Amino acid sequence: MQTSFRRLFPFVLITIWALALYWAIGSFSSDSKADLTFDNNTEVATLDPAIAEGQPEGRVINALFEGLLREEPSQEPDADGVYHLELIPGCAELPEVSEDQKVYTFKIREEAQWNNKQPITAEDFRWSFQRLLHPGTGGGYAKQLHYIVGAKEYNTVELEVGSRVEVELMDRAEDLVVEGGPDRLTVQGFPRGTIKRGIIRKIYRPKRPEFEKIKNKDKRKKAENEWETRWLYEVEVLEYQLNEGAVNPYESTIDWTSKGETFYFTTEDIDDIDPEFAKSLPPEVKEGLTRCHHVLLDFGEVGLKVLGEDRRTFEITLKNPTPFFKTLMSFYTMHPVNRECVEKYGTPVWTKPENIVNNGPFNLEFRRIRDRLRLRKNENYWNKEKIALETIDVLALNSETTSYNMFENDQIDWATTVPSAVIPTLRETNNPEFRAANQLSVYFYRVNVAEAPMDNKYFRQALFLAIDRQSICDNITKAGQRPTRGFLPFGFLEIEKLRNGAPYMEPAAYVQRAREAHKGDPQAIARADKSIKIDENETDPVKAARWLLALAGYPEGKGVPKFTLLYNTSEGHKNIAVKIQDDWKQKLGIDIELENNEWQIFLDKVNQKDYQIARAGWIADYNDPNSFLDMLETDGPENNTNWSHEAYDKAIADAQKEPDEAKRMEIFFEAEKLIMDELPFFPIYSYVSVNLVKERVKGVAPNLMDKMLLYRIRVEK
Amino acid sequence: MIQFLVKRFLWLIVTLLIVYTVSFFLMRSVPGGPFQGEKQLPPTIQRNIERRFELDKPLSYQYFSHLNKIVFQFDFGPSYRLKDYTVNEVIASGFPVSMSLGVFALSFALVLGVSAGVVSAMYRHSVWDVTLMTVATLGIAVPNFVLASLCLIVFVFYLGILPAAGWSSLESVLLPAFCLGAPFAAYIARLTRTGMLEILNQDYIRTAYAKGLTTYSVVTKHALKMAIIPVVSYLGPATAGILTGSLVLERIFAIPGMGTHFVEAALQRDYTLAMGMILVYTLILSVMNTLVDMAYAMLDPRVKLE
A94, A233, A439, A538: which sits with the fewest CB atoms below 10 Å from its CB? Predict the structure, then answer.
């Protein structure tokens, strides 16, 4: 037996090989070339607008879905050759805004429809917004709707006695099927169980742990949240009657003053309740306890209303006049999703090409993981006459070099990243395919102001002034970046106007402000003056930096405790960090250490505030200074510097309430000045977006937000 | 034989379990989690996401729950980063790609390697021999990403006959398969040459020549058959090496295979996807080794399976 097999073995091997080769050759599908092929840099994490975050996702979602409004580049580019984005009607006409700028009324256009030809109504938007805001969905950008009345409370579960609430009972299909509770990985975040509505009459709280003892702010917040989820609610549940033809419990008649039955709800597993806490509960609570999925603010309390016979009027009520709110309505997170589709297949299965129902200019034809996805013109799109491209291939190449190779080899029409090594050549040769445009984005360093020596503002000023930012742009980044004129990047025209003639960032201005602040302390001034002689109109930032350093108590840089500059591993960040290290050493006599960490570790350190100075970058989510400035609010989620300033917090809050645009910009400008004086952030430069686009691609309009407006692109043959 | 297989199978289970355990705890001990980004989520939202993926449970619970799903349902769970897909779907999409790249690479390695080896041995010490063996030595020494860059310059930008990257047509597989197969081709060439030289000195080859056979039939009928045995035994490790060694090349040539998914999963802290990839790789390596051992036993009666 073995002998015969030995003889057969070579043939077996050859047969296997031949079969394998046959299979391998056959495994290539032959796709026709798309009208436009572009590299989207990375595989989109999801096509679900509610949970997507990031530019690559935005490009695809903007092609598949359409929100209330849409963005169009301005007629003419600005002085920098960059187009600003203007709002145009999308699914809805431009809204009517009430006089107090708090009520927006959108009229959904009659032609608007899903790609399965179902009409789109305001109800679709309300449902999509509710899904986005529901805490179970886990939408990272849900906070962009927090400007709406009640939205923040609904999203972050802020409840008190007297709150009108909705309670989702544990009667979803999967709750009832799986023994011992649902398998949580298959659980849909969004309600599908019965909704009860009522009023909170009492909240039973377990003993409050001493959160103050937890040093780490994030851990404290987490623990507090943990504790809040263990609260029990006594709810008076009221009867409600659905309106005719309504699908939402919120379209109903409910008498909030009527009497109802009392229920006790917990979102925790009843067996998991702390025994001590259980002992402290009255017997009727213990016996009547019902487990539920969520206790949330009643969604009827959120400022979203569907009006009109045809249900095409969508009324949004805001807490404050929020001038940039309109812009948000064109952002991809706020695009509508189809309720029937989402509920039928569930998340994330509804996003598969064979299931997805969408309303944008393009449909999803196929999707291959970390390879490409193909978009095809949506024949049911209301404005399909405007769409020039039949097919688009979106690649996920994940490498700048590969992307550049494919572009040069004419395999792709558009590369959204460019290797930094080739940028100077592309610029010098004035290559028409190279599109660099000023972007609303800033490269900066975070400074942890909690620890010495960084807790001293004059020390921070000295460090900042000693950075030769122009040289970084000229010799390192080399794509046309410019040092910022404040914290905000270039592109906010009103801010630019205010900045002209306001020399708050001049070296002399820093010195003068310091002198004024130290009027009562002539010794300190004398010490600084002794260290270095300085003119009243000093223009040399280095001299001013040395003077400030002496004022901070470190003349000639002596006695500065060692500190570390942290950046995430990347050649570009390293070069900048090395240059800054050198600047501080040469000009101030301060030795620092550099440390680089891989991205996730780096993020962890920054979030834990376990750093002294850390590299950062920020891209505007929407075209408004608020997108940058609210970062530094005390305890703002992206503050991470331990910096807190009362006047600053007030300014940001005031700006959000200010209806007058000019005044609002002035407030922002003052806030920015405060940042530049206090320097919890060191702004380095204002980014430029770089793209390589073949000349045959028309309608590109390089814009401030680096948006790819696929619906208006044409390709000349 | 059956005893051997049972034993191997048991060892495989133990290996997988160890690999699972070590990777599980290593992954979680590295700072940074899959749901941490530059933008921070409100704690309520963060908690809901963690709940959904059971990340709020104690580590021991996560360890057993995930293991349980893998063993009894063959379900690696949802990918944490590719939120529209499960790990099973990602593997199902990446594995055939790497397989087909591997098949092409192995074909290159065999055809090029065996031909070069035979030619070298036949014309020993000639210019051909020296050139081919120098190339082979270089081929083993040069890392495949360097070779890839060279090939890109020559075939894509200088000659302009092949695509730079991608996975859309048969042409696009040629360069990566060649670069991936090259070191293996070099090794096979040296194995074949050594084997051939040894065989060509044997008495029965001299007899064959004496019978008046042509060089061609001596080589194909008598010499090559024996000389190729070391190559066959090298096929097992080579296959495993090709399947697992494509990490860098898949990145350079933008090939959506296992390697690309593996690297991305590790960088993005996609715990479940990384775990799935590690286990699949372990499985491939073990199965390949077992097959090779079985092939040895069948080819060579002196080898006993134990």
Answer: A94
* C-beta of residue B286 within 8 angstroms of C-beta of residue B10: no
Q: A402–B165: do the CB atoms touch at under 8 Å?
A: yes
- Predicted local confidence at residue A180, as pLDDT: 44
B-chain residues within 8 Å CB-CB of A27? 96, 100
Cβ distance B39 to A139 less than 8 Å, yes or no, reads no
Prediction ipTM score: 0.90
Q: Which pair of tokens denotes residue A698?
A: 């028309």
What is the structure's pLDDT at A182?
42
Distance CA A497, CA A567 (A): 34
Residues of B in contact with A155 (CB under 8 A): 42, 44-45
Q: In which region does residue A716 sit, left (phi positive, over 0), alpha (psi from -120 to 50) or beta (all else)?
A: beta
Q: How far apart are the first and last CA of chain B?
A: 8
Say if CB A625 and CB A665 are below 8 A apart: yes
Architecture in CATH for domain B87-257+283-299: Orthogonal Bundle (1.10)
Q: Is the minimum CB–CB distance between B164 and chain A shorter than 8 Å? A: yes
Q: Enter the tokens of residue A145.
A: 């709707």
Cα A199 to Cα A160: distance, rounded to the nearest angstrom: 10
Where residue A184 falls among pLDDT bands split at 50, 70, 90? very low
Closest to A610 in 3D by CA, of A566, A570, A672: A566
**Disruptive mutation site among B53, B69, B83, B250 for chain A (greatest number of A CBs within 10 Å):** B83
Of residues A64 and A309, more confidently modeled: A64
Alpha helices in A289-422 (DSSP H): 325-328, 339-345, 400-408
Interchain contact, B38 vs A638, CB within 8 Å? yes
Q: In chain B, whose CA is at the least distance from the CA of A5?
A: B298
Query: CB–CB of B27/B274 below 8 Å?
Result: yes
Q: Is A184–B96 a contact, with Cβ atoms under 8 angstroms apart? A: no
Let me know if A240 is exposed, middle or buried by CB neighbors in 10 A (0-12, 13-18, 19+).
buried
Whole-number Å distance between alpha carbons of B54 and B268: 18
Enter the tokens of residue A213: 């003892």
CB contact residues (below 8 A), chain A span 331-390, against chain B: 348, 351-352, 368-372
Can you tell me whether residue A290 is helix, strand or coil?
Answer: strand
pLDDT score at B284: 87
Could you give phi then psi for residue B45, rounded to 5 degrees?
A: -65, -45
Q: Where are the beta strands (DSSP E) in A355-481?
A: 362-368, 372-377, 391-395, 414-415, 434-447
What's the average model confidence in pLDDT over A377-402? 94
Best of B154, B168, B252, B264 to mutate (most A CBs within 10 Å, chain A) = B168
Interface check B58 vs A, CB under 8 A: no
With b for 16 or more beta-carbon neighbours within 10 A and e for fewer, the B262-274 pattern comes to bbbbbebbbbbbb
A79 CB within 8 Å of a chain B CB: no
Map out the domains of chain B as residue ranges: 87-257+283-299
Residues in chain B, overall count: 306
Enumerate the residues of chain B whose CB falls inside 8 A of the CB of residue A607: 36, 40
Helices (H) and strands (E) in chain A, counts: 23, 26
Rounded Cα distance between A616 and A443, Å, is 6
- Split at pLDDT 50, 70, 90, the class of A132 is very high
Residue B271 has pLDDT above 70, yes or no: yes
* Mean pLDDT (whole number) for B278-283: 92
Confidence of residue B305 (pLDDT cuts 50, 70, 90): low
**Token pair of A310 as six digits:** 């045809």
- Partners of A83 in beta bridges: A703
DSSP 3-state of A625:
coil
Question: Taking the mean position of all CA atoms in its chain, how far away is CA A290?
Answer: 37
Residues A152, A137: Cα–Cα separation, whole Å: 14
**What is the spatial distance between Cα B221 and Cα B175, in angstroms, rounded to a whole number?**
33
